[in-house]
Amino acid sequence: PDRPSPAMLTAFFRQDRPTAFLPLLPLLVLLWPGAGTEAALPWALGPALADQMVHGMPFFAPLRWLMAHHPWTAPVLSLVFVLGLAHGLNRMANDAELYGRRNHLPVLLLPLLLAMQPFGLLPGPDLAGMWAVVWALGRPWRATGKPDIGAALFDAGLLLGLASLFYLPYGFLAVVIWATLAVTRPFKLREYLLPMLGMAAMFTLGWGLVHFLLPGAWHAAASLRFPPDMVVAGTHWMHRVLLAALWVIMAMATTGSFASVYAHSLMLEMNIRASFLAFAFAMALLALFAWWLDGRIPPVLIAVPGALLMAYPLMQAKRTAWADAALWALLLLAGWAR
User: Fold this and answer.
1) Which end of the chain is more exposed for a tag (fewer CB within 10 A), N or C?
2) Distance (Å, rounded) from C-alpha 59 to C-alpha 248?
């Protein structure tokens, strides 16, 4: 592996070493809770934090109550969820060989993309449920090529059902499991039904538990919405211009890098990357649906696929200086937004 100098940020995260997680804790402390806070102290936000999250499904209710009565728990939960999601996301990508070489770039990109969105690091239901989505995707991806993947498909359904009990739209991601089956295996109706059976079993169990412990708390439609009187402070116009310019550059670089990697993939790798594209497209549809509902998108819907996609040009860059410039620009813009 490369031997990076202290200034070579990209080379440090390109390596497959757990030391990449060390900068995350101070970074999250500095950037929490994300953009739009008007420089308010984190512990001064108090119960107002609840107004910056979607309501969520009943399994999120205990966490919402905890943050409302003990505001200091919000940054602690945020650290736990973001660090756990970064680890799970990076492990899923490396185990599925999305990049051809193991690395830790998504570990850095995930919190940066979250922090650049309004209150993006808050431990909302979308963040609380995403770990189960990542785990669900990893099960069939790791089982690709095995003769019998029934257990992996049922487990994926259970995990998606669990994720849906935090944030309901995650149930739609069952189409990603179907897309994986479509490109990796011959058609078997049983394999397409198993994820739905697992999801239905978990959802039914959760529904019964909620109706037994918290009668009347099940409001699926209301769980999708942000509070009606939500107010978010905007960033400086120059910040928005620079961020938009960076997005355009990164989008062009990501498209070219992914196309190059995809074209040189073996058949199994090509199928997994096609399934990953289906996941990114499904997350984009969920983001558009959220925008249609409230004019605001839960941050995780953008940050998770964005972190996985943006790692491609950073991983493939022949001149590390250009990749370093992009990462430093993201860091500075995230700090400016905070």
Assistant:
1) N
2) 38
Sign of the CA dihedral with 220 first, then 221, 224, and 228 last: negative
Q: Which of these, 47, 24, 49, lies nearest to 118 by C-alpha position?
A: 49
pLDDT tens digits for 124-139?
Answer: 999 999 999 999 999 9
Contacts of 36 (CB under 8 A, 6+ apart): 52, 118, 119, 232, 233, 234, 235, 337
**Digit-coded pLDDT (tens) for 167-218:** 999 999 999 999 999 998 889 999 999 999 999 999 899 888 888 887 777 7
Degrees to nearest 5, angle at CA 8 with 263 and 269: 20
Give the bridge partners for 118, in sequence order: 35
Position 250, amino acid: M
Point out which residues pair with 35 in neighbouring strands: 118
Across residues 82-94, what is the average pLDDT? 94
Residue appearing with tokens 């990114």: 280
**Backbone phi, then psi, for 117, in 5-degree steps?**
-105, 155
For the entire predicted model, the pTM comes to 0.91
Is residue 154 within 8 Å of 194, Cβ to Cβ?
Answer: yes
Residues in the chain: 338
**For the stretch 62-95, what's the b/e string if a residue is b when 16 or more beta carbons lie within 10 angstroms of its beta carbon?**
ebbeebeeebeebbebbbebbbebbbbbbebbbe
Within 13 Å and on the Cβ side, how many CA atoms surround 37? 28
C-alpha distance from residue 100 to each of 94, 130, 197, 260, 312 (Å): 8, 24, 33, 12, 10
